[in-house]
Amino acid sequence: MEFKSLTNIETSFRQIRLFALVFICLCALVTGFAVWNSYSFAEKQRQKIYVLDNGKSLMLALSQDMAQNRPIEAKSHVKRFHELFFTLSPDKDAIEGNIKRSLFLADRSAFNYYKDLSEKGYYNRIISGNINQTVEIDSVKCDFNQYPYKVRTYARQLIVRESSLTVRSLVTTCRLLNATRSDNNPHGFIMEAFTIDENRDLQTIKR
Fold first, then answer.
1. Which residues, in sequence order, are CB contacts of 111 under 8 Å at separation 6+?
2. How high is the pLDDT of residue 70?
3. CA-wise closest residue to 164 among 198, 132, 128, 134
């Protein structure tokens, strides 16, 4: 009788140890899951940015890896330069304002083109002839496989005179360098070795 009692006690201890081990394992799993879930939630929250809209309401935005957006920023940078540099109106202050803003986006190679055109009287003819010039960007090709990034831009110039509309083909090339972002250069690029490869008449429409 005594031997049977000891056997029952030993069996009970084994069961208690088994239950304790199972309980500890379950606690560890629950704790691990809770910690992992907490870190995942915190990471998702760090990707959210709340922007104050004119001091009135909060707007939710999502943060992104900056490198993922660089190709888009590069094309936007080049497009903005062409819009400023080649969009001209018969107003001296407007021309100088656009050129000044465009030169923040490029190195001295762009300034050399501006200086050459200015010395040839190109801008004075725009003003005296009451000519409006705009540019339409067809495509911007960027090669991000090597640095500095090579860029080729295809565009059309529309030159509007009182008696005619001239459409010109414009093809330019440059290289893009990373630069510090600023109010004048929000995309953080500088165009170097800017070259006009083609600028020829396509058609002239009489008005």
1. 103
2. 86
3. 132
Question: Identity (one letter) of the amino acid at 123?
Answer: Y
User: What DSSP assignment string belongs to the chain?
Assistant: -HHHHHHHHHHHHHHHHHHHHHHHHHHHHHHHHHHHHHHHHHHHHHTEEEEEETTTEEEEEE---GGGGHHHHHHHHHHHHHHHHH-B-S-HHHHHHHHHHHHTTB-HHHHHHHHHHHHTTHHHHHHHTT-EEEEEEEEEEEETTSSSEEEEEEEEEEEE-SSEEEEEEEEEEEEEEE----SS-TT-EEEEEEEEEEEEEEEEEE-
Give pTM, 2 decimals. Answer: 0.69
* Residue 127: per-residue pLDDT: 93
Which two tokens mark 181? 């972002």
Query: Which phi and psi angles does 101 have, rounded to 5°?
Result: -70, -35
pLDDT value at residue 141: 95
- Say how far apart CA 157 and CA 172 lie, in whole Å: 12
Is the CB of residue 136 less than 8 Å from the CB of residue 111? no
Q: In which residue ranges of the chain is pLDDT below 70?
A: 1-10, 12-13, 41-68
At 13, the amino acid letter reads F
